[in-house]
């Protein structure tokens, strides 16, 4: 059996699961599992994950981090992608109501702004999405909502367009991105692989004429090795793939990461991320560069 088939079998067997092997089921790993299983041609297993997310959805449309924790609700974005993928896999519209309620909630959710200060490099007045309610907009949750809303058909919505401007604004001058800050007290902050991969994934297909975008691709392409940690590697490969810059070594790096996970007690979170970074034979809500 190919290692990629073994990986998909492991994702299916661990769904629903969480961040730790014996931990409680959590929304983010289950959403990644749904999309990965759908892309791998496992509609039944993808539906099982999507159903878990539907049962966890609250009346206002949001999906919390676990079934018992209604906040923070940033994983609502990934739930939208999961339901879209499950529908695409089985050719039905089983989750259309869930998607619409989640989209309605997402369009109302806003990160806080703050007056601009010379000590801070990024535009603090741009509105995106935050990790937790009533806090500042940060790069990763904004990227996930931009991706989800574009895939749900809201690419031209003003909130999505401002989200794209925020993501571009948060790219570092010398290439890459971090959690969402650029300069503090005149010092450029360091880039990291995971947020850079996430922002490249979200911005794929956008017509952005900004030198920092190809610089971010270069940073990420030159940063990855076989020793890159599993989550960072998966997000980075995913981002580079949709930017048509998938590294030639990507599959061997992913296989080595799967071997490392298999030698221990793997979590659904890392298994599903690795599966999400596998080459997809057809466009999916996760890997598509278009909206």
Walkthrough of the structure:
This is Prenyltransferase and squalene oxidase repeat protein. The chain has 291 residues and is an all-alpha fold. The chain has two domains: 1-109 and 263-278, no CATH class; 110-223, no CATH class. The protein is built from twelve helices and two strands, in the order H-H-H-H-H-H-H-E-E-H-H-H-H-H. It has a two-stranded antiparallel ribbon with strand order 1-2. The longest helix has 15 residues, at 76-90. The model has no long low-confidence stretch (mean pLDDT 94).
Please outline what is shown here:
The chain is built from 12 helices and 2 strands, in the order αααααααββααααα.
Assign the structural class, choosing from mainly alpha, mainly beta, alpha/beta, alpha+beta, or little secondary structure.
mainly alpha
Number of helices: 12
**Total strand count, please?**
2
Rg estimate, integer Å:
18 Å
What is the N-to-C succession of helices and strands?
HHHHHHHEEHHHHH
Protein name: Prenyltransferase and squalene oxidase repeat protein
InterPro entries: Terpenoid_cyclase/PrenylTrfase
Organism: Posidoniimonas corsicana
């Amino acid at each position: 059996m190919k290692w990629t088939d073994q990986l998909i079998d492991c994702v299916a067997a661990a769904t629903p699961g969480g961040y730790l092997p014996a931990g409680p089921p959590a929304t983010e790993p289950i959403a990644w599992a749904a999309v990965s299983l759908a892309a791998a041609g496992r509609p039944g297993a993808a539906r099982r994950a999507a159903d878990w997310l539907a049962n966890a959805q609250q009346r206002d449309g949001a999906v919390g981090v676990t079934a018992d924790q209604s906040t923070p609700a940033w994983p609502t974005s990934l739930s939208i992608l999961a339901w879209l993928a499950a529908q695409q896999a089985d050719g039905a519209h089983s989750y259309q109501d869930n998607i619409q309620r989640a989209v309605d909630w997402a369009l109302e959710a806003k990160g806080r702004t703050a007056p601009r200060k010379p000590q801070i490099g990024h535009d603090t007045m741009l509105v995106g999405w935050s990790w937790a309610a009533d806090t500042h907009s940060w790069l990763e949750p904004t990227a996930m909502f931009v991706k989800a809303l574009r895939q749900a058909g809201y690419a031209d919505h003003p909130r999505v367009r401002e989200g794209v401007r925020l993501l571009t604004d948060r790219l570092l001058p010398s290439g890459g991105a971090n959690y969402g800050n650029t300069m503090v007290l005149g010092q450029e902050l360091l880039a990291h692989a995971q947020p850079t991969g996430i922002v490249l994934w979200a911005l794929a297909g956008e017509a952005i004429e900004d030198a920092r975008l190809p610089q971010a691709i270069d940073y990420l392409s030159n940063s990855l090795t076989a020793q890159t940690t599993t989550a960072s590697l998966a997000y980075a490969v995913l981002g580079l793939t949709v930017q048509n810059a998938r590294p030639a070594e990507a599959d061997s790096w992913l296989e080595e990461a799967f071997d490392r996970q298999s030698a221990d007690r793997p979590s659904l979170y890392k298994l599903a991320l690795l599966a999400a970074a596998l080459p997809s034979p057809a466009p999916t809500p996760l890997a598509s560069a278009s909206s």
